[in-house]
Amino acid sequence: MTAELLTLLKNRISLIWLVLIAATLISWWIGTGDAASPQLGTAAVFVVVFIKVRLVGLYFMELRDAPLPLRLLFEGYCLIVCTTLLVMYLATGTG
Amino acid sequence: MELSPPMSTTAPPPAGRARGSGAQDRVRRTPHVPGEAGVWVFILGDLAAFALLFGVWMYYRGKEPALFADSQLEVHRSFGAINTLLLLTSSLFVITAVRAVRAQMRRVAQAAIGFALVCGVGFLLDKVLEWTDLVANGHGPTANNYFLYFFVLTGLHAFHVLIGMGILTALLRLSRKPSLSKGQFAFVEGGACFWHMVDLIWVVLFALLYLMH
Q1: Which of B17, B153, B212 to mutate to test binding with chain A, by most A CBs within 10 Å of its CB?
Q2: Model confidence over B33-90: pLDDT tens digits?
Q3: What is the 3-state secondary structure (H, E, C) of chain B?
Q4: Count of structural domains, chain A
Q5: Measured between CA atoms, how close is A53 to chain B, in angstroms?
């Protein structure tokens, strides 16, 4: 069974998972305040977060194989929420 | 009617995708809604509700940026980061379980769902430890607006994790069956998507509550 599980894990979805884990660790580092510009760092974190959200949707939820309307709804969600949060953040500035 | 698409060798794979680990991801298939269409009404509705809550958080943060920045220093990012890693890993196990069901690997599906459940338990334990630590240090929900919304958002999300774990438990039971009906397989896919939604929301919450400067 372990061999079968490993066979299933040798897959592009595991690579996506690795990318998600790496992105989380990078965001964690940026979030610790070591970035040169906190505002730029936070904006970068937002962009990375919604790339992660999109990857979860497309690969884990399998929306890359969904009918176009459903996929567009999801893609639109990512774009609108990311843009709105970025605008709200940039309009109010850093703490 | 036992159509048994995923567990039967005679039925076609559920969505036109070829069976087997490698071919499964190389061969594009006809468009397919994962789970029942109704599940997506619920998932998209829940995502919209959380988007609204993200906006509420940003609005109040904008009104008191200094308070939110100072309060954020009192939360430990490690709690949030570990929870993110746990949920992302659980999602990998859940999609692996769905693929195992399609490939008729029942024991693998059960093991993968079991690992996902362990990650879910780890998430909730981490969350309880974090809440306990915050309250013990005078940073409970009544401390200020930052902590009020922190507890509301993380509490709502933890409730979703609990529901998700209930669904995963149901999937575990289903994955023991030798064959699944079309409806049962749609439930497997829909339940898996609900769990991924819980993961997806946390990814955003982690940035908003722990990482923003």
Answers
A1: B212
A2: 898 889 999 999 999 999 999 999 999 999 999 999 999 999 999 999 999 999 999 9
A3: CCCCCCCCCCCCCCCCCCCCHHHHHHCCCCCCCCCCHHHHHHHHHHHHHHHHHHHHHHHHHHHCHHHHHHHHCCCCHHHHHHHHHHHHHHHHHHHHHHHHHHCCCHHHHHHHHHHHHHHHHHHHHHHHHHHHHHHHCCCCCCCCHHHHHHHHHHHHHHHHHHHHHHHHHHHHHHCCCCCCCHHHHHHHHHHHHHHHHHHHHHHHHHHHHHHCC
A4: 1
A5: 6
Q: Are the Cβ atoms of B211 and A33 closer than 8 angstroms?
A: no
Judged by CB atoms closer than 8 Å, whether chains meet at B213 and A65 is answered as: no
Considering only the beta carbons, identify the residue of A13, A61, A93 that sits closest to B92: A13
What is the ipTM for the molecules in this complex? 0.92
Nearest-CA distance B198 → chain A (Å): 11
Domain extent at residue A86: 3-92
Determine the distance in angstroms separating the CA of B207 from the nearest CA of chain A, rounded to an integer. 7
**What pLDDT, in 10s, does the model give residues A39-76?**
888 888 899 999 999 999 999 999 999 999 999 999 99
How many pairs of residues across A and B have Cβ atoms under 8 Å apart? 167
